[in-house]
Amino acid sequence: MAGMRTQPRKPKGAPNGTGGQYDHLPHGHDTLPDLVQDVPDEGTLQSHRARREYYQARDRAQQGWMYMDQFLKASEPAGDGHDWTSQPVCSMAREMELVERAIGPEGRPGPVARKFLTVTDSPSQAQDLARTWVDGTLLALRRSCALDPTRCYSEPLVRAMLAPGTVKLERILAKPPYCLSAHRSRIGNRYRERLDAYKREHGRVDDRIRDRVWDETLADYVEEKMASGASMGGGLYYSNGQDANPRHAHVRRAMEQGLPVPVRRNPDGSVFNGRADYERILADFRSQLHQHSLEADRESFGFDPATDAGRVDTTGVDLVKVFQQAARQGNDLDVLADTLHLDDAMRQRVMAAACT
Prior knowledge:
The structure is a single chain. The N and C termini lie far apart (69 Å). The radius of gyration is 27 Å and the shape is flat. Helix 9 packs across helix 10. Among the domains are: 104 residues, no CATH class; 96 residues, no CATH class; 44 residues, no CATH class. It contains 15 helices and no strands. The chain is mainly alpha-helical.
């Protein structure tokens, strides 16, 4: 208790109503941290809020500290026997080269961007997702190296962080704004791979086949998890509405008594189909990606289809790609623009973008 009484408190009037609370930052709000000496002890910055406030304090003390070689270069050996003090810091130019290689040129996804093609059929959307992931990953890496005198933000480290294997897609998509749960994403990936294999061998599939492939995939997944003792999460249902997790009490009780597992139902009384629900979630996710891309296109072209009467509905259509393909095929672009009822401003914007 003595330690608690001597720990500094935040002053009255501190932001977010935190006045009087114990200060989790060693330097408090009155003074800014010394960028060389005042690095918090391990465990001090466990919460997101603590880290955010600490980063903001350092930004106020010296803008751009995460990009300065004096902090990014290792200044002392690590305690585990590794010594990176002789490694140079990765230059911004080299980092940009590695990033562009990982994402790939426009329309041709690189190794990291290709990881995102499992959730979108659009190469450009896959590259947008990849760039967001890369930016966040390298920013976190910079902060980590700048705060740790034993680590160096070196080219080998950056290259290792941009390896495709470091992309944990299920974890990324489980977070807002996508909210595609991790366990459903894992099962869904297997399901779609098996379904694609079935299509290649047998051709078109119907809902009956989809349900069968989903149920078989889910059963295999559950068997693997039970054998390994690993958690499989909740919300996993077969196409007949039965809970797939045998560790759940109501499932275990029904199995022990030799009774059918209770069936989950929709609000309208119909049977909840786990396969259909996954495909709905995936469709919603793809729709969200598409809408984000469409809004960006609308902003860049400077028009809103909702207010432009008399036009052909081009919602969801990449006009630039349409015009580029028409040009490659030798079609008259003016005739195409007339057919789509594009006004002069839109016609000029699209043609200019298509010809660059």
